[in-house]
Design a protein that fits this description.
By secondary structure, the chain is mainly beta. Helices cover about 5% and strands about 50% of the residues. The protein is built from one helix and eleven strands. The protein has one helix at about 105-110; strands at about 5, 10-15, 20-25, 35-40, 45-50, 60, 70-75, 80-85, 90-100, 115, 120-125. Strands 2, 4, 5, 6, 9, 10 and 11 form a seven-stranded mixed beta sheet that branches. Strands 1-3-8-7 form a four-stranded antiparallel beta sheet, with no helix packed on it.
């Protein structure tokens, strides 16, 4: 059984940094992409960033390019999202998610292909 467990959320001021972690378990191979979605109150869930476990390629939403960095520690089966220069509009519940395909772009751009979700971790950025 696949499980995704997020940690690292919190309340910070604008301009600060946070690092989210997603501990993944239950995968039997590397044929998947994994990453992060977020959902702000009253808004649809949106893809933030994904990384392919097969080749390490990454994809970022335009809104976070240059500020967020996704990485994977394969030995620990953990994916990280380093978030720098946080803005109030980054406030949301952040969900770890895994796609059953290997492409990072599809993972972040097409939530209908996500097959596993974590329970989420809250990130709040004050102005």
């Amino acid at each position: 059984e696949v499980q995704l467990v997020e940690s690292g959320g919190g309340l910070v001021q604008a301009g600060a940094s946070l690092r989210l972690s997603c501990a993944a378990s239950g995968f039997t191979n590397d044929d998947y992409a994994i990453g992060w979605f977020r959902q702000a109150p009253g808004k649809e869930r949106e893809g933030v960033s994904c990384i392919s476990r097969r080749d390490g390629s990454t994809y970022y939403a335009n809104s976070v390019k240059g500020r967020f960095t996704i990485s994977s520690d394969n030995a620990k089966n953990t994916v990280y999202l380093q978030m720098n220069s946080l803005k109030p509009e980054d406030t949301a519940v952040y969900y770890c998610a895994a796609d059953d395909g290997v492409g990072a772009e599809r993972c972040a751009g097409a939530p209908e292909y996500i097959v596993f979700w974590g329970l989420g971790t809250q990130v709040a950025v004050s102005s």
